[in-house]
Amino acid sequence: LCVFGKMVEETEGSWGLVLIYLLTAAGAAAAAFWLQPAVVRGAVTVSLGASGAIFGLFAVSVLTRLSWDPRKLLEGLILGNFVVRQVLQEAQAQAAGGLSIGGLQVAHIAHLGGALAGVLLVWLLSKLPDPDAKASR
């Protein structure tokens, strides 16, 4: 959260970070609610945590850095490599049946849902008109 939250805050501002965090957390929770089985091995499942929102911040921090500025492009490529590896590991773990730690199941689907929410958020925002372009006319 400290690293990727700070990176998102640099490009989107403090309120943008808060809004993005909350929206990607909601996307992660929705994915867990709709796609995670309600009962696993006879026990009711409950999703808890902020990791899905962190995965959303991963995605947003990389996608907002992709530009023709060589420095930002290099940052985006380096971070993108890390984020893609993390998302692929989550998908692989989900496909393999998940990971249990101390009897608790990791909600890989929430991580994937948070990342997808971040991608969708950046895509949707890219479709909005640029207010700076209108002001400079």
List the helices and strands and how they pair.
Layout: H1 2-35, E1 39-40, E2 43-44, H2 51-63, H3 70-95, E3 100-101, E4 104-105, H4 108-126, H5 131-135
Antiparallel strand pairs: 1-2, 3-4
Helix pairs in contact: 1-2, 1-4, 2-3, 2-4, 3-4
Describe the protein in words.
The chain contains five helices and four strands, in the order H-E-E-H-H-E-E-H-H. It has 137 residues and is mainly alpha-helical. The strands form two sheets. Strands 1-2 form a two-stranded antiparallel sheet. Helix 1 packs across helix 4 (108-126) and helix 3 (70-95) runs antiparallel to helix 4. The longest helix has 34 residues, at 2-35.
Summary, kept brief:
The protein has 137 residues and is mainly α. A two-stranded antiparallel ribbon has the order 1-2. It has a two-stranded antiparallel ribbon with strand order 3-4. The chain is built from 5 helices and 4 strands.
